[in-house]
């Protein structure tokens, strides 16, 4: 059945137990009265026209002032249609309570325990919601409730709570009554970054010194006799800029053509931007060298010089 046909069938079958049906993105969501939740799921499972024999999941939802609800997704392996059931737990935020579905779907057991652990929703008739499975037994509160305080977010807001420009304006806004309420200047930020780099550099030098001492101890030497590790020389940005402006550096960056002109490669003419063509030299290079007794044209095998035979002995082997 299509989602619309499923909605009509459930309204006709269950009557007032269905309070709302909604089809969105090809998915049917049926809201039912809380006390009728086990009966509705049993009809969905055992009715031959529905046959929702696969229990997918049960999850809690924080509805803010309305309290908490649960959503149950079911699938029919035979009919290949699926449905989402929804029920709002009575009791508000203080004592949300719903009947258990473990008598209909045994797989609902751990899902209901998770909903209790994260939202505090109690399921009457459940074989055992305790001990808590996702937190310690003496844990206070329910982590997925919207009022649950995350201490890490007291110092830093959620990344998606504001747009980047809004976060920037919020960070630069002076705090009333706070000392140093003016925004940090660019010079102060640069000085802070420089101090941080200096600390990192000093820490790296200390680490190198410590490694050198460890190597000296392993080799049985005193730290005073161990040479200091060489550090890379500081690069002067001005000398680097001067070097980059030379013809050779420009040629190396531009390619072989300018390099041939500047350096004066053999066979090129001064002032000519392209290599000078030499058909005779190119034809000779294309023919290659004549074959040698080693078997490879122009290349002698290792240990076979001057056409030596397989039994020949290289006198160089006698040299130390």
Structural account:
By secondary structure, this protein is of the alpha/beta class. Among the domains are: 3-124, Beta Polymerase, domain 2 (2-Layer Sandwich); 248-274, no CATH class. The chain is built from ten helices and seven strands. It has helices at residues 3-14, 37-46, 108-119, 152-155, 164-172, 186-219, 237-244, 247-254, 256-264, 279-287; strands at 18-24, 27-32, 54-62, 68-75, 82-89, 97-99, 122-124. The strands form two sheets. The protein has a five-stranded mixed β-sheet, with helices on one face. The longest helix is centred in the middle third of the chain and has 34 residues, at 186-219. The radius of gyration is 40 Å and the shape is elongated.
């Amino acid at each position: 059945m299509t989602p619309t046909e499923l909605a009509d069938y459930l309204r006709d079958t269950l009557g007032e137990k269905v309070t709302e049906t909604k089809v969105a993105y090809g998915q049917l969501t049926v809201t039912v009265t809380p006390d009728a939740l086990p009966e509705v799921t049993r009809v969905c499972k055992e009715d031959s026209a529905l046959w929702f024999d696969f229990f997918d999941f049960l999850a809690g939802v924080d509805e803010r002032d309305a309290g908490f609800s649960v959503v149950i997704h079911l699938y029919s392996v035979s009919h290949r249609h699926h449905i989402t059931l929804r029920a709002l737990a009575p009791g508000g935020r203080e004592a949300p309570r719903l009947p258990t579905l473990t008598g209909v779907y045994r797989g609902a057991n751990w899902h209901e325990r998770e909903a209790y652990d994260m939202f505090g929703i109690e399921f009457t008739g459940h074989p055992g919601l305790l001990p808590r499975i996702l937190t310690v037994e003496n844990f206070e509160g329910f982590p997925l409730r919207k009022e649950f305080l995350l201490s890490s977010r007291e110092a830093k807001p959620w990344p998606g709570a504001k747009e980047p420009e809004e976060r920037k304006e919020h960070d630069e806004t002076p705090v009333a009554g706070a000392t140093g309420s003016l925004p940090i200047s660019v010079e102060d930020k640069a000085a802070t970054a420089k101090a941080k780099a200096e600390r990192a550099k000093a820490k790296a030098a200390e680490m190198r010194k410590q490694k050198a001492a460890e190597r000296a101890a392993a080799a049985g030497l005193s730290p005073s006799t161990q040479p200091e590790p060489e550090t890379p020389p500081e690069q002067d940005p001005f000398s680097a800029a001067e070097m980059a402006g030379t013809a050779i550096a420009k040629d190396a960056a531009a390619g072989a053509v300018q390099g041939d002109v500047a350096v004066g490669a053999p066979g090129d003419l001064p002032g000519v931007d392209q290599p000078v063509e030499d058909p005779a030299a190119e034809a000779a290079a294309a023919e290659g060298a004549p074959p040698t007794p080693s078997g490879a044209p122009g290349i002698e095998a290792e240990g076979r010089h001057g056409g030596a035979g397989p039994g020949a002995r290289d006198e160089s082997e006698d040299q130390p």
